[in-house]
Amino acid sequence: MVRRLLRSGLLRWCLGFVVVMGVVAMGQGEIPVVPQGIIPVPVEPGIVVSLTTDKATYAPGDALKLTFALNRDAYVYLYNLTSDGKVKLLVPNRYVQDPRFPAGKHTLPTPGWTLRVTEPEGFEYLQLVATEAPLSFYEAKAFEGDAFLLFADPARFAAQLQTLLVGRWGTAWTRFRVHRPRATLGVTTSPRGAAVWVGGTYIGTSPVSTVVAPGRIRVRIEQSGYETKSIDLTVVDGEEVTLAVALSPARPALWPPVAPPTWIAEGDLPAPGIGLAAGLTSLSIAADLWIEGLGFGVSLRPSPPIPNLNEPGPGGWFAWGPEVEGYLVGWLSLGRVGAVLLLGLSAQEMAWVPPWLPSGTLAPQVVIEPETRTEVRITWGVGLGVSGSGWRAYFLWNSRRNLVLGFTITP
Which of 48, 70, 139, 406 could cross-link to 277 by cystine, CB 3.0-4.6 Å? Predict the structure, then answer.
């Protein structure tokens, strides 16, 4: 590709692009030269631009936030120089199709979408171009197929930009590191073969080594015939820690083990009853446990179908998962007939869906996902039922599940 760029006379700024791509692919070390990206930097910028990230290093899965500032109103184009030699246009996108921003400081992403850092580890580069006139190097209709536009030919992308950059414009770039913090922990014991737990997770028998997340951890070591040993320590990113532990023989017990007292004689507590309930007008199922006239249970109501992610649709909050309800229910006996009263709480994950949702996973480092929240509601219900010898049936109107039919087997 370098020869092709040399023939096209773009050596001045393509060398910078090659440096960026090479360092991104290596993913380590400091950069001896300032990368120029895939467009030239104006000698006297007509628009003053700055671009920063909220952190210098992100672990895979972290949310990425950007801040940029303009000294005047401008059209903003932000793209990602990916580690596989492509250009991913981040702004404009499906959710920000009008890239004109007023002068001042701005934060990305805007509400409704999230930029999330993913593997591989290494360095990622972002470049922002601000122009006084819009650049027509793409068609907005392309956002129907992908939330972000991908340009697989950087040389062609650069040539398009160069022909369109007229008038006043400015540019800024920044980089961040993708790195998963880790430390190495090795454990040896005397005698060998002791069981080792790190943070409550069994990792094997000594000698053993494992990778742990930096921070404070607890190591527990157990061996039959020896005293259990617990060690608290703090490890930092990149550290290699080795624990050599000598186990002490277990001391004999001073008193023989005593069986716990039997506090409750058989038959002191009433036998529990088991109940099932199903929604008649809304798909739901519930199970509960009864002690005489009081029961507690859990219900599950699947979420309705989510919007088609590949077709245009209205925005708003949509159910993104099943609704789970925990409740207390009481039976007020009036002879064979009884009243049913219910009070509980339900929780359901909701997602804010813009007019478009991303289709599939976006690569390589930056992906998009809906903004979610958990919605908690108070639930209640009233109903009537009948009881017989060893059973109870009732109809209940629930504030979330509507009409419910329940049946309980009682002792």
Answer: 406
What's the first-to-final CA gap in the chain, in angstroms? 81
pTM for the predicted model, two decimal places? 0.51
- CA 235-177-63 angle, to 5 degrees, is 90
Query: At a CB cut-off of 8 Å and minimum separation 6, what does 195 contact?
Result: 202, 204, 205, 221, 222, 223
- Among residues 217, 213, 209, the alpha carbon closest in space to that of 180 is found at 213
Question: Per the structure block, which two tokens stand in for 345?
Answer: 């709480």
pLDDT tens digits for range 151-185: 888 888 888 888 888 888 999 989 898 998 999 99
* Model confidence pLDDT, tens digit, residues 354-364: 666 454 444 44
Total residues found in the chain within this entry: 411
Determine how many CB atoms are found less than 10 A away from the CB of residue 160: 16
Spatial neighbors of 117 by CB under 8 A, at least 6 apart, are 58, 59, 60, 61, 62, 63, 64, 124, 176, 178, 365, 366
Give the CB-side neighbour count of residue 327, counting CA atoms within 13 A. 28
Phi and psi torsions of 156, nearest 5°: -65, -40
Q: Is the pLDDT of residue 265 over 60?
A: no
Domains annotated on the chain, with CATH? 2-178 (2.60.40.2550), 183-246 (2.60.40.1120), 273-409 (2.40.160)
